Amino acid sequence: MMQKIGKWLRGIKTRRLLITHRIKDGDDRLFFERKHSCPACHENLDQKELEAALYVCPSCDHHFRITPWERIKFLADGGVFHEFSADLESANPLSFPNYEDKLDSSIKKSGLKEAIVTGICRIEGKETVLAIMAFEFLGGSMGSVVGEKVTRAMLTAAEKHIPIIIFTASGGARMHEGIFSLMQMAKTSGAAALLNQLGVPFFIVLTDPTTGGVTASYAMLGDVILAEPGALVGFAGRRVVDGTIKEKLPDNFQTAEFQLEKGFVDAIVPRREMRKTLAYLIDTHTVQARGWK
Hints:
- With about 290 residues, this protein is an alpha/beta fold.
- The protein has ten helices and eleven strands.
- It has a single domain (about 65-285), classed as 2-enoyl-CoA Hydratase, Chain A, domain 1, CATH 3.90.226.
- The strands form three sheets. It has a seven-stranded mixed sheet with strand order 5-6-7-8-9-10-11, sandwiched between helices. The protein has a two-stranded antiparallel ribbon with strand order 1-2. Strands 3-4 form a two-stranded antiparallel ribbon.
- Helix 5 (about 145-160) runs parallel beside helix 6.
- The longest helix is centred in the middle third of the chain and has 20 residues, at about 180-200.
- The protein is globular and about 50 Å long.
- Residues about 10-35 have low confidence and may be disordered.
């Protein structure tokens, strides 16, 4: 029995526990490399192998969730990204219990100040505003700061006469901020309408998962809406919808592929082709900048 337990523990160590460590940029914190198990096919993958594949499983093509900075690394020319609105941080307008603690915890775990990163970069030489949501920060929920950063990003695109690309990943509105969170749906939708009036190209990329108030607002208002393969895209959860309409739902309900079939998504683009596809869209959509001085 003890031999079996020892063998089992060694297997756990091989697959899951820390294998090597390295010091990064003189920081005394340890950054660990380890095996990752693909949630779709359960293949064990090295960190370096995953990075080289842009965090897409080489065996089954499952697209792992990635951070904004990991995405920026392979999207922006030379990884160069000029962030703006980085100083905005959430408050607690409703004095919601433990909200500050949850924010502090998310900041420490993710290394981000909020659930979205916004800035300007070039993709194959073409300047664009780029905004990327972070599901690892409170489920990518949209509170007042996320809504403000999205709106500022849209207005920056209008002011500079350049396109805007937003990668969505969200569980919806941030309940801790109540009506202040729900207001962001109207606010961001209004900014998206302004982009349309001004003739500024607006591209959306739906990543896993995109749900709730983000889906019900700016995520579905792009001139072109792309999605990563297998991304969960919807409004309410499957069980909520099932319990409401009292009907059996299709197995692929709320997948990017289902949304494409029903006409809510224009194209599904694998991650390795995303940079080239976005560069093509920027190149073929002229900024008209009607009425903006």
